[in-house]
Amino acid sequence: MSLALETNRLILRRFRGSDLEAMIALHQDPAVMKYLGPLMTPEQTNDFLYNVVTVFDEQGWGLFCVELKETSACLGFVGLNRPTFEASFTPCVEIGWRLASSHWGHGLATEAATEVLLYAHEMLGMDEIVAMTTKENLASQRVMEKIGLVRDPQGDFMHPNLQPDDPLAPHLLFRTQPRN
Ligand SMILES: CC(C)(COP(=O)(O)OP(=O)(O)OC[C@H]1O[C@@H](n2cnc3c(N)ncnc32)[C@H](O)[C@@H]1OP(=O)(O)O)[C@@H](O)C(=O)NCCC(=O)NCCS
Fold first, then answer.
1. Whole-number Å distance between alpha carbons of 40 and 27
2. Helix residue spans in the chain (DSSP H)
3. What CATH number was assigned to the domain covering residues 4-175?
């Protein structure tokens, strides 16, 4: 699968084996994992990437590796995913992101997500896309707003994969606005 998207500063492409080191470092950064759960071991990241590539090859879309054009570094991912848990808003396709903390605050998540959202609508013919995050993750919510998603308070939910008393359990739901 050679699909790649391009933005001003980024290439969004299928993950490859040489990205593993950068992804292991990403998943061992406490700042990155603050709202996502425990740090991931190298083995867990290896399994994670294997799954990402398998799904991407099977369905032709998924989580894109975010590569910075200037250095060719793998910064993390932005992409599309079908949640496997059940909630009031599933089945659905969500957009999500996870980038190296050394590159936060420069609009890179917004730049990549804008392109992926356009791709979902225009090339994959997807209508509604959702995004979700734990209540405290304000940076992620800001990215959702900046790419034009709108919070749906009726979609607030306790993440079913987390214990109800886990501080990360309360989640907010954002949706793309209806398109004409
Ligand atoms: C969420 C994440 C991808 C954002 O990446 P990024 O490249 O820094 O995002 P952008 O620069 O495009 O936009 C971030 C916005 O959040 C804002 N922001 C950052 N921290 C914030 C905070 N604590 N409170 C409020 N807003 C915040 C920034 O100011 C910016 O908004 P602005 O352009 O209006 O100033 C990055 O922080 C990340 O990878 N976090 C760890 C993984 C994660 O939590 N993923 C989301 C899971 S749902």
1. 5
2. 20-27, 30-33, 42-59, 108-122, 138-146
3. 3.40.630.30
The torsion angles phi and psi of 54, rounded to 5 degrees, stand at -60, -50
Question: What is the Å distance from ligand 1's center to 136 Cα?
Answer: 12
Q: What is the pLDDT of residues 95-147, one digit of tens each?
A: 999 999 999 999 999 999 999 999 999 999 999 999 999 999 999 999 999 99
Which protein residues touch ligand 1 with a CB less than 6 Å away?
32, 35-36, 96-99, 104-110, 133, 137-140, 142-143
**Interatomic CA distance for residues 12 and 99, integer angstroms:** 13
Domain spans in the chain, listed from the N-terminal domain onward: 4-175
Q: 140 phi and psi, to 5 degrees?
A: -65, -40
Instruction: Dig out the tokens for 135 from the structure.
Output: 């209540």
**Ligand 1 atom nearest residue 134's Cα:** 48
